[in-house]
Design brief:
Layout: E1 12-16, H1 20-26, H2 31-51, E2 56-63, H3 71-95, E3 97-102, H4 110-122, E4 129-137, H5 139-155, H6 166-172, E5 183-187, E6 205-209, H7 218-230
Helix pairs in contact: 1-2, 2-3, 3-4
The protein binds 3-methylbut-3-enyl trihydrogen diphosphate (IPE) (2 copies) and magnesium ion.
One 3-methylbut-3-enyl trihydrogen diphosphate binds at residues 16-18, 60-63, 65-66, 190, 192, 194.
Length: 238
């Protein structure tokens, strides 16, 4: 029996998928096993969003800061990303989901970068929803790049400084065209944003669960949706 959808579901869920390493450590396994299990949670949450008709899902998969991890872990994560894209493209086709990516994609190794381009191209006409992967993503870097482009347009005389609005900034971010996330989920209990979507999350509802990302499944997803349904979103009003 499928779960009934809670009323007023979010249109866009963003997730800081954290705790893979601790999940593995708790089992006496290498960190890589946690990342492998985490990829399975990604597959599950894509299915759940499709089932509950939540059109936009953004997943923080690799941060600009994560490049500072040991080389072997970074390489393993990149291989896992490539394999994930190869194996899961069919799910995106099945659910008519368009793959999108944000972050410094030019820094990704050729293998995953090529696979990413291929799947984005192959799914670009799907319109039931979007899956956005944040890869080599840092919000400060994204905002800095946007500011640079706006300044360049101003210098070229295409834009006057007094014409710059919040909308100008938003449309120069890599998330241009996506609605802002309504709900941010962070797993593994950490109460921080870790340089994720600082602009876009301005009015998102924050939900932090102690559950480690590889353990995040239907039950946890439902709890997050139920909690979101109980929130009063005031946006500064009364
Ligand atoms: C999240 O899990 C995955 C990435 C950041 C790539 P972690 O690898 O950060 O797991 P913990 O936080 O060390 O447990
Ligand atoms: C945030 O997790 C980045 C991703 C989930 C990709 P981290 O584990 O890198 O963040 P910190 O170190 O806890 O801030
Ligand atoms: Mg972590």
């Amino acid at each position: 029996m499928p779960d009934p959808a809670p009323p007023n579901p979010p249109r866009h869920i963003a997730v800081i998928m954290d705790g893979n390493g601790r999940w593995a450590q708790a089992r006496g396994l290498p960190r890589l096993e946690g990342h492998r299990a985490g990829a399975e949670s990604v597959r599950r949450i894509v299915e759940l969003c499709s089932e509950f008709k939540i059109p936009h899902l953004t997943l923080y998969a690799f941060s600009t800061e994560n490049w500072n991890r040991p080389r072997a872990e970074v390489e393993a994560l990149m291989l896992l990303l490539e394999r994930f894209l190869k194996e899961r493209a069919k799910d995106l086709h099945k659910h008519k989901i368009r793959l999108h990516a944000i972050g410094q994609l030019e820094r990704l190794p050729a293998g995953p970068a090529g696979e990413l381009r291929r799947v984005m191209e192959a799914t670009r006409l799907h319109a039931a929803g979007t899956l956005t992967l944040a890869l080599s993503y840092g919000s400060r870097d994204e905002i800095t790049a946007a500011v640079r482009r706006i300044a360049e347009e101003a210098v070229r005389g295409e834009l006057r400084p007094e014409e710059i609005t919040e909308d100008t900034v938003a449309t120069h971010l890599q998330t241009a065209g996506l609605p802002e996330p309504d709900l941010l989920i962070r797993t593994s209990g950490e109460m921080r944003l870790s340089n994720f979507m600082l602009w876009q999350l301005s009015y998102a509802e924050l939900y932090v669960t102690p559950c480690l990302w590889p353990d995040f499944g239907r039950e946890e997803f439902m709890l997050a949706l139920e909690e979101y349904g109980r929130r009063k979103r005031r946006f500064g009003g009364v």
